[in-house]
Amino acid sequence: MRLPEQKIDAAMQSYAKKWMKTxxxxxxxxxLGYFFVGLFILFWSSSLTNQIGFDLKxxxxxxxxxxxxxxxxxxxxxxxxxMARIGLERAIRSACWLSAVIGPYVNMTTYNAWNLSVISxxxxxxxxxxxxxxxxxxxxxxxxxxxxxx
Length: 150
Prior knowledge:
Number of strands: 0
Shape: flat
Number of domains: 1
Largest sheet: none
Number of helices: 5
């Protein structure tokens, strides 16, 4: 019985050493995508609750709001974990989230202003790409700056 316990102990020590090494790595802290997705989840939850026909000020409407809020938050965390598991680094994930939020809103805004669907799709797509590039570059610059400080 002694042999399996030694293997488990050795595996735990190996894992602990790997985990301790990750604590020394500087981490970028812009996370613009995560911040805005969190704000938009609140906005979408209240909008969906109102569109379904419930009042947020009443008890059942508040329960529906919190249910939608938790569902969207949980879905966001799952998608983020999937992106991390396939190997996308944090800066790319953050830029993806921010561009996924900004692009459709630019599309809707230009469509409501000009009533031109092709132009609004082009503007939304261009805004999403530009947002991705700016967010990614900002995150990389901050990461480089934080590494330079240490």
